[in-house]
């Protein structure tokens, strides 16, 4: 159990714990101790946090937590809060340590630093410092500015570190976490991709029983893995629905029809709604209006499919009761539902489906992080092309055509986008970039010359970005040779386009998509 003291690091700690093959969940720091213990954690990690233990409203740790016999590791703020609760001293020394700091292990380094170099770098970020460890604790590391940089009391299963073992800038941090989890807390490392698949499949099977379920596939990773897992659990009592709205990229429909089905054997219904969306979008240029229309038409189409399935099942004396969604753990934590029980907002990742659709939700990925979802996908046999797919927005190419969406413009953009993707893949850059939208400036025309003749065509914009989570992004410095190949091919091969430009704006101030 990772207790979140409000730092951005709590989820990262939870991921690192899982990398040590131990299942973890995040709970807010104001969760009562009885509630924490009721959930029977094998160990507890107290995260860092932005507060000073001296601040008036500083979150505290109830000393009861340390008397329950559950091993606890305090990190940064958690280390200081633990110190205070156990009678040690935290001082506002005025010395701040921020960033890479040399750690010197002492007293043999204790269990936490066993076999680590005596001096090694760690990542620090703190103003207050522990000046005296609580009674019974051994100081096991120090730095030039911090006399107590780590302590432990292995007999009682308690330990703490001032530095952040969870960040990549602490190169031995993962070993320290492993020592705590495996050696001090004695937890067996058995959270593996195979065990995730087995446990989830069993849970889904129990939940759905003999009923039927429906899953909206978007072509993205999450819905594909969710669908594959539920398919493994209930076979053809699951129907996957894929709406082709005509705003897809080249090859996407085929990828779902062929690759997803080949890998999973799932029952798939593809709904051809191209004409419906084309008609609904005719004459519309405003980005928000486009998004609203697409959302509305998507829901209508999905509802129709769901109704038809229900009727079909009803005739066979069965019921479709469940809707599968690809909600991930970070969404659950961020909507305050870290405990996995109360006040969990349902995130809709298939176009915001309405309440009155009357399905119970099945969210097989709700305890998983994105990297685990990808591993589960591979374990289930999904191809790399699906599992490592870059993000693509629900409204598709419609929000990458600046101006009215018409079949001809879609065809132009689809062709330019396919070339950009081919070249980026061929240069081995797919994993380095987050995504690279190609945008068609359909209402802009400029003069060009091709084959001795004048052209009056449209520009396309390449928007390569690097990002961790799409909340912020930087533009990616693509090699000139790659840009050159993309530019030459697009202007040669795509009619209507006579200029290729690159967007060099970060986010903020730009967004990733243009609309
Ligand atoms: P922006 O443009 O807001 O995009 O910087 C951030 C990320 O979200 C994707 N995106 C969407 N994904 N439905 C989606 O499923 C949408 O309506 C949508 N709009 C943007 C975008 O591709 C980027 O990864």
| Order of strands across the main sheet | 2-1-3-4-11-10-9-6-7
Average pLDDT works out at 92
Radius of gyration: 27 Å
Which small molecules are bound?
A: xanthosine-5'-monophosphate
Q: What is the oligomer described by this structure?
A: single chain
- Categorize the overall geometry: globular
Are there runs of 5+ residues with pLDDT below 50, and where? 338-351
The N- and C-terminal alpha carbons lie at a distance of 40 Å
What is this entry, summarized?
It comes from Actinopolyspora erythraea. With 515 residues, the chain is α/β, with parallel strands linked by helices.
Describe the structure.
It is a single chain. By secondary structure, the chain is of the alpha/beta class. 33% of the residues lie in helices and 20% in strands. The protein is built from 14 helices and 22 strands. The chain has helices at 10-19, 33-38, 77-85, 173-184, 193-208, 221-234, 252-264, 274-281, 287-315, 329-334, 370-379, 384-387, 407-426, 480-493, and strands at 2-4, 26-28, 44-46, 72-75, 89-91, 97-105, 119-126, 129-132, 138-142, 150-153, 158-161, 212-217, 238-244, 267-272, 320-324, 360-362, 438-440, 446-450, 453-462, 465-466, 474-475, 497-502. The strands form five sheets. It has a nine-stranded mixed β-sheet with strand order 2-1-3-4-11-10-9-6-7. Strand 1 (2-4), helix 1 and strand 2 (26-28) form a beta-alpha-beta unit. The longest helix has 29 residues, at 287-315. It is globular. Mean pLDDT is 92; it is low at 338-351. It binds xanthosine-5'-monophosphate. ATP binds at residues 218-224. Homodimer. Residues 191-389 form the GMPS ATP-PPase domain. It is an enzyme of class 6 (ligase). It catalyses: XMP + L-glutamine + ATP + H2O = GMP + L-glutamate + AMP + diphosphate + 2 H(+).
């Amino acid at each position: 159990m990772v207790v979140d003291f409000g730092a951005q690091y709590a989820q990262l700690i939870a991921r690192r714990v899982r990398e040590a093959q131990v299942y973890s969940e995040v709970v807010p720091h104001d969760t009562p101790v009885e509630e924490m213990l009721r959930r029977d954690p094998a160990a507890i990690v107290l995260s860092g946090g932005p507060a000073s233990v001296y601040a008036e409203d500083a979150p505290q740790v109830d000393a009861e937590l340390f008397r329950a016999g559950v091993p606890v590791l305090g990190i940064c703020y958690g280390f200081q809060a633990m110190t205070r609760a156990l009678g040690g001293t935290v001082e506002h020394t005025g010395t701040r340590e921020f960033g890479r700091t040399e750690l010197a292990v002492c007293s043999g380094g204790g269990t936490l630093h066993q076999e680590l170099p005596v001096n090694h770098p760690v990542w620090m970020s703190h103003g207050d410092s522990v000046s005296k460890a609580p009674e019974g604790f051994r100081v096991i590391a120090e730095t030039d500015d911090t006399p107590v940089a780590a302590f432990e009391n292995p007999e009682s299963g308690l330990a703490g570190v001032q530095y952040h073992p969870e960040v990549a800038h602490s190169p031995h941090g993962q070993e320290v976490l492993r020592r705590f989890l495996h050696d001090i807390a004695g937890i067996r490392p058995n959270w593996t991709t195979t065990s995730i698949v087995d446990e989830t499949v069993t849970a889904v099977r129990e939940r759905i029983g003999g009923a039927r379920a429906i899953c909206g596939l978007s072509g993205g990773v999450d819905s594909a893995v969710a669908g594959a897992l539920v398919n493994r659990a209930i076979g053809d009592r699951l129907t996957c629905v894929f709406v082709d709205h005509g705003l897809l990229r080249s090859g996407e429909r085929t990828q779902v029809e062929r690759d997803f089905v080949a890998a999973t054997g799932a029952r798939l219904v593809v709904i051809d709604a191209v004409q419906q969306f084309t008609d609904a979008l005719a004459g519309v240029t405003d980005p928000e209006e486009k998004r609203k229309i697409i959302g509305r038409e998507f829901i209508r189409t999905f509802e129709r499919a769901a109704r038809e399935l229900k009727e079909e099942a009803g005739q066979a004396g069965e019921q479709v009761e469940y809707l599968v969604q690809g909600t991930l753990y970070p969404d659950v934590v961020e909507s305050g539902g870290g405990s996995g029980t109360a006040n969990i907002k349902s995130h809709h990742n298939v176009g915001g489906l309405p309440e009155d659709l009357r399905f119970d939700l099945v969210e097989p990925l709700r305890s998983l992080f994105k990297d685990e979802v990808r591993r589960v996908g591979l374990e289930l046999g999904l191809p790399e092309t699906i599992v490592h797919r870059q993000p693509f927005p629900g409204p598709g190419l419609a929000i990458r055509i600046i101006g009215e969406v018409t079949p001809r413009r879609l065809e132009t953009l689809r062709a330019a986008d396919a070339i950009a993707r081919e070249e980026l893949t061929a240069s081995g850059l797919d994993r380095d970039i987050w995504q690279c939208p190609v945008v068609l400036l359909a209402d802009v025309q400029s003069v060009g010359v091709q084959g001795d003749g004048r052209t009056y065509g449209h520009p396309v914009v390449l928007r390569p970005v690097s990002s961790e989570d799409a909340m912020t992004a930087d533009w990616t410095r693509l090699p000139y040779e790659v840009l050159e190949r993309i530019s030459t091919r697009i202007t040669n091969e795509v009619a209507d386009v006579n200029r290729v430009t690159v967007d060099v704006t970060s986010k903020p101030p730009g967004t990733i998509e243009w609309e």
